[in-house]
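Standup notes
- HV: blocked on the assembly model, inputs below
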Amino acid sequence: MPDLSFSSFVKKALARREAALTLLLVVLLVPISIRSPQFLSAKNISTILNDMAILSIVAIGEFYVILANGIDLSVGSIIAFTGMATGMINEANPTVSPLLLLLAGMGIGMVMGLFNGVLVAYGKIPPIITTLGTVNIYRGLTFLLSGGTWVTAHEMSKTYIDFPRNTFLGVSNLLWIAILVIAVFYYFSRYTRTGREVYAIGGNPTAAKFVGVNENRVRVVVFLISGTLCGLAGALWTARYASAVNEMATGFEMQAVAACVLGGVNFAGGSGGIIGVVIGTLFLGVVTNALPVIYLSVFWQTFVQGLIILIALTLNTISDQRKTKKLLAQRRG
Amino acid sequence: MQQALLEVQHVTKVFPGIRALDDVHLSLRRGEVHALIGENGAGKSTLVKILTGVYFPTSGSMTLDGKKISFKNAIDAQQAGIVAIHQEASMFPELSVTENIYMGHHLRNPKTKKLDWKTMYERTQGLLLRMQLDINPDSLVKNLSVAQRHMVEIVKALSLDADLVIMDEPTSALTGREVDDLFRIVRSLKEEGKAILFISHKFEEIFEICDYYTVFRDGQYIGEGKVAESDEDTIINMMIGRSIDQMYPHHEPKIGKKILEVKHLSQLGAFKDISFDLHEGEILGLFGLVGAGRSEVVRTIFGIDKASEGTMHLLGKPFMPKGAIDSMRKGIALVPEDRQRQGLVLKMSLTHNISLPVLTNLCWKGLVTNKKTEAKYVQEHGDQMEIKSAGYHVDAETLSGGNQQKVVLAKWIGTNPKILILDEPTKGIDVATKAAVHEFVCEMADKGVAVILISSELPEILGMSDRIVVMHEGYQTAILDAKEATAESVMRYAITTVQMEASNA
Amino acid sequence: MAEKRDLMTKSRLIDEMSVKNRLIEYFTQWEVLLSIIIVLVFIFFTTRTPYFLDWFNLMNATFQFSEKAIMALPMIFIIMCGDIDISIASIIALCAYVVGNAAQGGASIPSLIFLALLVGTLAGLFNGVMITALEMPAIAVTLATQSLFRGIAIGLLGDQARTDFPENFGFFGQQFIPGTIIPFEFVLYLVLVLLFAFILHKTTYGRRLYAIGNSAEAARFSGIKVKTMRVINFTVTGFFCGLTSILLASRILSVRSNIATGWDLEIITLVVLGGVAITGGKGSVYGVFIGSMLVGYLKFGMGLLKFSGTLMTIVIGLLLIIAVLLPRLLDMYKANRKLRLQQLG
């Protein structure tokens, strides 16, 4: 007989990490908004969301790589290269539509992701080493491409720079794109075979092989997704910040990984979801934005981020260990 | 008698240095629950792996429904209609029941290619209902009990429309009520005309659920028959009767004073309430079938795992090691079960392997390695074990199984143990090395060392031990004097379910 | 016994027969290949510019890589056990902040050194304890502490800099051994190379590191305290972060919160390029030494030839991938060869 009581419903809901995280976010928002009522104003919320849009796109790519039990350290460099490339295309041909630039960024990013994926899947180089190498290579290529110079705001077309800011139905294009990406990959993860196979490879590669999942194909696909999304993010980055700098997005991989960890994605692979990653990203955004409210200078942002990740990791681990113990106790008293 | 669904004929599987299966037969009919019986290492798992496409037979033929079958991989076997229910290994714990059943062949909308979760959910629920199982198709597998996971595996086999379902020790982790559930399902499978190959060590279960049995021993086919027309004694005799009577070295025990006392030792999920004494110069056999918890007991004595309850006394003083180094300092040595993963560092040289536990003693001030002292030490103990290799500088992974085992023994005799624990020391090694190991064990005992010997081979346990502790499913079922023990009596205790367990359900 | 002697003569015969095989075996070792590459690099630059093979220049160039090369040494221990630490740059930043702050408060040089070493050691200990006590992957924990440690420096320092240091503090990072043209930093590095080579290759500690890296389980069954040793590795690495922070602060005499940013990946690159397997259990201090020198002098030479740093980044990235891919290909080649030889014999 299934337990239909309210308390069991709450328990079940909380067992889902996404729900627990959302609750935590709400709990966090209450004191913040009491202290500073403007925090929950439409304007501030829209600022937070726009700030987090690019990170959420990149974090979703990183999510798939971690889900398949890997890590992609090259995301920052791919963003830089594609951002520089689209910036320069725009400089040379100011009339090109921003949408085409986004597509160009995605195309270039896809090739870079493919390179990572092939090295991991067929070269059998551990993902951490592969992307540690390509983080250097892609950053170097960015310098080669630009010749060490920048693309500045007045060298770019107004349509491109304005593109992320322009609104449609009151929501910025940047946010629309992020929403679209979230929707597409929510669908991918939930309703396509490949999407599910990523979970299988990350969770139990041996068993996955047993039921006919092609491991190499999945490994290439996850890096392909990560690269493509970084390409998109790069094109948006250049437009949003109205400049393409060689050093752009340095260290961004750590923020992307942090958003995943916060969203409950396990480093061991095979668990986590898009919604969790989005909430994890939002969590980072809220915390960063809320620091001044609690009279902490923004300089403490990094520290608070680190602390939150560490706490999230610790809680995850402890709850997992408890679960294992409970299962063991069921076996032989 | 109706025509066989599966016919295995003259199947042989040879691994380098070992004949895992030697010309075996097996035939299964639809609507039959067929027990495959044999000791550990009798070749049951090898046959299962051949049937499920993991191994390819060296020779022999197999037919399914009259057609010849030959599988290149596991998926081939599945498509042919043979599905094995493994223990947990093939599950995705982070995914739902529905998904575990459909991974690899998710149902899709034929036009949009969108996964059809609704149908998958409904079918899963249908299958679960058919089996009268109270499991939510949306539950994550990691939140299910071990029993429920088994049921999900069975449902998965059903979803694949398997003709032959292989169940390898399906009840080993189940409580009494759960076993009843499982048997209900097995019976309904039977009524649907499926064939079930049932591998179990538990006789009461075999007699309750199985119609037919086949016995393997040492990779060979021994015999078969109707369960209803047999009794336990007949089958036990088939399991243990030895074709080659091995010679064991003569060992006149000179039992000294009590050295180790184990009282009510327990470990959550592994074993419960183990109590025995161990004396100097004694060889204490520890017998049990797969999953009895023998290795876990000695791992705990050696300090690798922690005990959850109970006490130990070493020479009268309380003893509870926090790590292997604690027990090593007190004179305990363990030759572990898995020599490739636990006994040796395969990618290190023999020298470095043999000196590893005593490195501190061989070094200047216990810190700086000394090549000469080390080489001398290794030479001395390695030669004593007569290791055959191209030299002590080669990596351990280049040696044969028997020689690897000699390296492990050489590694531990140098520690001058007072208690020597050997976990399956002769598993998978050639006859000559086996004899050498037996000789060595007796020598050690004659020198006054207390020996705990774990073995799955009854003759070895009977031939070597002075006393025998028998375990079943984590519980200690008997301590027997080897002089009075017979193969029958030991085996009977090894398959006896302790009453306590039932109350646990 | 006779059989054994027979076996030994046989193996000796095989040895003598296959000088060619042994040469192939030797030259396919990563350390040997690296040494050949560095010689080629030196020849290349010497023929291209007269400023390269100049003792003064060669010595001066070491200022640019000594600190990272020093950090690569304790990192060998960590990676040898199959762990990783991506928080070292942040620990350096934290230590540098503490040093800069204390120096501004007028602390003496010995107390500055003590403070840096203390803070670094504690930070490393924290990493090690979190990783082993909670049984969490090292990459996850050090990812968090990367933000945590640097976050403290950023939070306390903001966008300010600390530039007041005691007189003579510049010695560690800027000066030469009196009467020579050899920088103090470089001498310290060479001494540490010898020390780490001694520990890794000549002591029980080193031997146990290899055992853990190859099979943590077999190591545990041999009485090695695996967790304790992993904690020690992280703690030692933290200690050297403290040391490096002194050298770095002394060299640039200015501490900002973004100090040493990006060093984590560079240092791991040096270790892996030096032939230490990222999965643990394989590698040598010599390899990492040659790898560090190779990267250092490649950068220096390319700088002399007015190549941008860019090309250098690409070369290092490629080298890293090749360093992992090549041994794998060589292994495959060797295995194939062995198979062919067996079939022949």
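- HV (later): unblocked. The first strand of chain A starts at residue 167 and ends at 168. The CA atoms of residues 166 and 183 of chain A lie 21 Å apart.
- Next: hand off to the docking folks.
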